[in-house]
Amino acid sequence: MTQGGLLRYPIPADAALEPPAQWAELRQQCPVARVTLASGDEATLVTRYDDVKQILSDPRFTRPTASDNAARVADVESGGVFNSEMASVLPQHGEAHLKWRRSIGKWFTAKRMNALRPGIEAMAEQLIDDMVKQGAPADLKANLGFPLPVWVICDMLGVPDADRDRFSRWSDMLLSMTRYTQEEMTAAQMEFGQYMAGHIAARRAEPGDDLLSALIAETDVNGEPMSDITLIATGMGLLIAGHETTANMIAKMVAMLLSDRQRWEELLANPALVRTAVEETLRLDANSGFGMMRYFTEDVEIAGTVLPGGTTAVCSMAAANRDENAFENAAEMDLSRSPNPHLAFGAGAHACIGQPLARTELQAVLDVLLRKLPTLELAVTVDDLHRVEGLVVGGLQELPVRW
Question: Is residue 94 predicted with pLDDT exceeding 80?
């Protein structure tokens, strides 16, 4: 639990759906805590809602870059999503970052999400029908949680859905903290980069109605197109983010709702609660992963403590989302909670750009499941659910269900 007298981070949890007991202790007694990461480097863990929001919203600070003397998540030189060439290529500051986000953000508007929703629901219905044909018990993550968001993001990027198993393997390696070796992560980055470079070359020769084709054709005010290396990094980043997090969240959301049968019954009785129920599962997700890192380029005061420039802060949005000072009855699941200003997608200029898509997918999946499988239940006890280990994203290894 400790290393050299410091708390090890990530903090292990005893249960798949519950937070470590230390979160509440840290928020109350040590909201700015020194921790040791898997790499052996030291960082500062921040767990209170106001403090996490302050740091994530501060335009002075961003994710550590290769030029910063920042704490490393894992004991590897390169290859992981936090310290890879992909991470260093995408602009992190100022006008360049805003321009990049504007180019991507046009594909995640409410209008586009509304247009996508019928197709997402139809795919969810097809995947559920296929799962039912195979019979119970079934792994809902493998049969629905994983293939649905992969199909959606592949369609948006114009890449073949048939390559989804390769994307999953590459993504896991690039999201590794302790699961894969340096050699495996470096190889994955090279293979994924070569794949995406080939796809972009093909799209340049034969454009389609997809995000990457649009980015290839787009130029800035000076008539400059997006560079190939930025296009490759963008495609890789969106493919990883567009399926890993949502695939895991679909399974966790359903697990949380089925772990207490009253929650599922409440939604069956009132399907209008789906939107707020999705937000509440996002808020209460105790297994969301590593959190967001920020590198302080100058001194900053957090919770009465002055942290010097050069500090690497780890913001635990999941711990902050259970802060009693920010949410009434924070430990309880309230399916009608509104407003619900949780930090599951971050905050500020670097908040998750794909959150409208994630929300659309989660709401669509829950709507379809309630309609098609009202008798859905866990096929194992909650104690028999197991977390994904060794990655920067949190998830369940599988979600066995029956109906």
Answer: no
Contact 235, 328 (CB under 8 A): no
Residue 360 scores a pLDDT above 80: yes
CATH number, domain of 139, equals 1.10.630.10
pLDDT at 247 over 50: yes
Q: What confidence tens digit (pLDDT) does each residue in 161-196 have?
A: 888 888 888 888 888 777 788 888 888 889 999 999
Whether 402 is covered by a domain: the verdict is no
CA distance 276 to 336: 5
Token pair for 17: 């759906």
Q: How many domains does the chain have?
A: 1
Q: DSSP class of residue 395?
A: -
Rounded distance between C-alpha atoms, residue 343 and residue 55, angstroms: 12
Q: Domain for residue 342, yes or no?
A: yes
Q: Looking at residue 317, what is its pLDDT?
A: 98
Q: How far is CA 218 from CA 169, 214, 221, 291, in A?
A: 31, 6, 10, 33
Write out the residue range of the structural domain in which residue 351 sits. 2-394
Return the closest-CA partner of residue 196 out of 103, 106, 86.
Answer: 86
Instruction: Give CA separation, 89 vs 82, 93, 100, 236, 318, in Å.
Output: 12, 12, 11, 11, 28
Residue 1 predicted with pLDDT over 60: no
